[in-house]
Sequence to fold (613 residues):
Amino acid sequence: MGTAVTLVKDAPPAARKTRSAAPADRKRRGRRENLAGYLFMSPWIAGFLLLTAGPMVASLYFAFTDYNLFNSPKWIGFDNFTRMFDDPRWQKSVEVTAKYVVIGTPLKLLLALGVAMLLAQSRRGQALYRAAFYAPSLIGASVSVGFVWRSLFSDGAVVDRTQSLFGMHVGGWVGDPDWILYSLVALTVWQFGAPMVIFLAGLKQVPRELYEAAEMDGAGPFRRFWSITLPMISPVLFFNVLLETVHSFQIFGSAYVVSNSQCGPADATLVYTCYLYQQGFKNAQMGFASAMAWMLLLAVALVTAVLFWSQKKWVHYEEDVR
Amino acid sequence: MSVTTVPKSPGLGRKRTGSLVWHLGALAVLAVVLYPVLWVIGASFKPSKDVIGSLQLFPGHPILANFKGLAKGIADISIWTFFQNSLFYALGSVLGILISCSLTAYAFARIRFAGRNLLFSLMIGTLLLPYHVLLIPQYVMFQKLQLVNTYVPLLIGKYLATEAFFVFLMVQFMRNLPKELDEAARLDGCGHLRIYWSIVLPLCRPALITSAIFTFINAWNDFMGPLIYLNEPGKYTVSLGLMMFRDSDGVAANYGGMIAMSLVALLPVLLFFLAFQRYLIDGMATSGLKG
Fold:
């Protein structure tokens, strides 16, 4: 840390000089390098074929079958997909997940950026605050925190009582279908520390002179943020948006734990993966669950593609990068 | 850390107010962030009936009954069993990640072989791949191999470098090591294995430590993997033990015990964090910068 971090892509070292040996010699060396490369890579290659590529193909096949794990898969064409689109619980799970992603991710990133900008002003105690704010990101996914969350948002617990002070009686968020999802949103926002740390590192890279020059020209704080900070940190902003969005589509553990393993009440926290889990592992509908998984993959791929497409318009990389 | 130049002060008074506002803002965020952590500590020392309802963060009369109750275990299984299982899973994962990811990263960063760029893109692609697409077929495979209810499905990926994030982290680190090191070693007749083991690995210590701690914490917190693959209480990790506690009879009367166990389950992660927070935060920060 502290050194200027450049956005290095796979930049080939400029004009690598191979000793001008005989071509046969060089060829032999190239072959040896290839062999060494693949030997070092062999665990990854085995893992990729066995645990990633193979299962992906299998999952695509299962998606078009009726399969309960014990009988052999029976080809049923697009039946899983048509059934899925007509399934009110599937629709509900899409709705719940979309709501969670659309509300939770921006809130979390806004808070992360806001606090990062606060901390970037480099006052005393900054390192301490940074560490403390980061801690929830490490424990947030644990079952323990899920229990704590359920307790804090229960009827008569601290959140409920505080809310009652303002004249709103909900009676605990976790028991109320209209509110429980927001306790999950609160849980993800509470973990703003991870993106905050990345924002903070990005903010430190912005040259101070830019601000001084802009201030000299009479640019106010808002203008400075809009014209300097935002473009300068756009690569880390992009990274955070991409990662947080993709991850929040896949929320499972906290929804499962906070809702008492019910993904409810009234399916109010039936996030996509919760339904996938129920279908696949509770109802042994492996075909249907695989079809669901592929729809999730398509959704994530679509969002990723849109983000990558949009970055041309708003993400500014340093000149020598791409 | 760069020492920032203090902007020319527009009057001492305004500067002091600014500083005050800054600290008030930071403290407000801190209070909200730390509240749940302080709450779980305080609640562990409260009688069960006060856990939810009492607004006092720390009880006036702390009790140890919740912790003493844990000694009885959950459903005749000692708490220690769950901790041993989690420890086995976490340390097994750390070992796997350190070996497999560093080998892979070395190949990507320091060996020029045909197809390297293609494989690198594939590896990056798996970073964004939702795990759920692989979940069902992997389960089917491990079920056919009769490996369900063992730790093999949970660990094997760690030994086959499927955690692309750590490969990526190590590649970034290794790329920044001076190339001259390898070349000098090579002139001395060192092969890749020697260079990897005696030069690159020791220099990569920070990246290895970061990966090790993250791996430990991820495995310790992992819930979905054990939930799907382990189905015998004696093999449960702490996460599943906690879930079993919650679903056991009489948990309402022993709510304090459940919260106390939640705290105990969090302790290893919190201690790791306190000891190594620099490595974790810096590792996290760099991952974003070199995207």
About this structure: Chain B is about 70% helix and 0% strand.
